[in-house]
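Hi support team,

I've been running sequence recovery on a batch of backbones for a student project. Most finish fine, but this one hangs at about 90% for roughly twenty minutes before it completes. I'm not sure whether the input is malformed or the queue is just slow. I've pasted the structure tokens below so you can try to reproduce it. Let me know if you need the job ID as well.

Thanks,
M.K.
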């Protein structure tokens, strides 16, 4: 019987070689770095919920979905051949709780969902939710070496830098390059909205994201990764390039004129102080440099951000306004949200039954007041109402438990691996804070970036424990 050597080969060639040879297979794990890098770049550069492939299916076949499906299929083949494994980075229980909670929320509320006509929305929401979990498991299972983690991190940062550059162009020229992607790639079908978001006279850039806040969130998470790559660079020139990428990504995030970006940066600073202590204080002049650079890169952004923190009547007054109406403030939503949750406290009312930014729900069984459904610009409240206490606890444990695990491992791990763990922990803490100000799980790009970063960080944590 012929024996097939598989070390270093791609996952698809692995499966085909086994079939062609019909012999025994050396069960060595193939390298999956390039397919994961492709997934990362697709997530960054092909706007989600805007472009699909021209294939007639009951759902929109977007490229990121196709990549995940192909990756999952190849992974399953390799699992069957014994040349791959399943890994959840030590998060199997909480991931299981998330999936079971999501499915249970729909099963318990099936009749209410049917009567409200929200079946399609519920199924779509469940599919998006499961795609996050699947992407996390794929990255956790397929990326095994720290060197491969670094390559994927480089792809994350380079993709973020390209999108940030487009965002700054959009800020200056008022043209979103990603709205015209189908003119360059004619095989893509554009079905999204080509609209601009203007608030207080300021254009809030969107680039490849679904919303300015989601863009700011996704870009901000990549700043610590870019800074880490600058410390890992082999030459001074490469170090300066990664530092320039970090600055570019941060400027792109600021161009969204989003308070969420500022909140995330503050949370990331707190996490960084936990990891590095007062050593960070020596870098405080960077705040002044950031303000000046932002002013020249995107004129007017600094003043508009200031105005968003100092609205007429104050921030608290703005957040406590329009209770029970569309566009209500986050504080004003707390009472109605808790009232809705108490109607189904354990598993909530089901995914897809709570109105979210960008979705159009004519009615929702969770509305506690008459009129338009409430949009909770707070993923924690959204999760509490839609998935109940089980879902919220699972989300909190996954996000902040991952921050704690990554941070603790960073403090115990010396060298560049410890610094990479710290960067991932800081990024995850930023996302966890940002979730309080927008319904994050509705925005696929930002959430996928978060799950990928956490999966990579936990892989490094496992490698450090094995060393």
């Amino acid at each position: 019987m012929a024996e097939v050597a598989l070390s270093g080969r791609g996952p698809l060639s692995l499966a085909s070689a086994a079939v062609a040879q019909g012999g025994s297979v050396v069960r060595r794990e193939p390298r999956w770095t390039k397919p994961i890098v492709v997934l990362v770049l697709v997530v960054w550069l092909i706007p989600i919920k805007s472009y699909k492939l021209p294939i007639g299916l009951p759902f929109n076949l977007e490229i990121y979905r196709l990549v995940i499906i192909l990756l999952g299929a190849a992974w399953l083949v390799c699992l069957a051949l014994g040349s791959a494994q399943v890994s959840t980075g030590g998060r199997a229980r909480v991931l299981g709780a998330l999936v079971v909670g999501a499915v249970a929320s729909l099963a318990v509320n099936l009749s209410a969902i049917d009567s409200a006509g929200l079946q399609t929305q519920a199924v779509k929401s469940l599919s998006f939710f499961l795609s996050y979990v699947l992407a996390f498991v794929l990255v956790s299972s397929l990326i095994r070496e720290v060197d491969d983690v670094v390559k994927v991190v480089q792809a994350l940062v380079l993709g973020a830098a390209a999108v940030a550059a487009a965002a700054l162009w959009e800020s200056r020229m008022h043209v979103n390059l990603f709205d015209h992607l189908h003119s360059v790639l004619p095989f893509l079908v554009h079905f999204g909205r080509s609209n601009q978001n203007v608030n207080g006279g300021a254009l809030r850039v969107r680039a490849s994201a679904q919303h300015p806040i989601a863009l700011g969130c996704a870009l901000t998470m990549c700043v610590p990764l870019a800074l880490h790559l600058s410390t890992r660079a082999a030459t001074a020139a490469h170090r300066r390039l990664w530092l320039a990428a970090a600055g570019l990504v941060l400027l792109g995030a600021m161009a969204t004129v989003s308070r969420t970006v500022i909140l995330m940066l503050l949370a990331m600073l707190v996490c960084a102080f936990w990891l590095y202590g007062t050593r960070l204080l020596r870098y405080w002049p960077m705040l002044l440099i950031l303000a000046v650079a932002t002013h020249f890169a995107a004129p007017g952004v600094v003043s508009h951000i200031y105005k968003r923190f100092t609205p007429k009547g104050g921030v608290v007054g703005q957040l406590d306004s329009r209770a029970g109406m569309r566009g209500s403030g986050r504080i004003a939503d707390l009472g109605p949200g808790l009232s809705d949750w108490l109607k189904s406290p354990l598993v909530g009312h089901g995914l897809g039954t709570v109105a979210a930014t960008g979705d159009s729900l004519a009615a929702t069984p969770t509305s506690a007041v008459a009129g338009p459904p409430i949009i909770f610009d707070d993923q924690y409240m959204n999760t509490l109402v839609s998935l109940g206490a089980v879902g919220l606890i699972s989300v909190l444990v996954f996000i902040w438990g991952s921050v704690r695990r990554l941070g603790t491992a960073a403090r115990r791990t010396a060298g560049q691996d410890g610094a990479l763990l710290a960067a991932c922990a800081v990024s995850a803490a930023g996302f966890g804070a940002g979730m309080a100000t927008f319904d994050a799980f509705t925005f696929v790009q930002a959430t996928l970036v978060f799950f990928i970063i956490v999966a990579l960080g936990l892989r490094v944590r496992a490698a450090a424990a094995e060393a």
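--
Follow-up from support: It reproduced on our side and the slowdown came from queue contention, not your input. The chain has a mean pLDDT of 85. No action needed from you.
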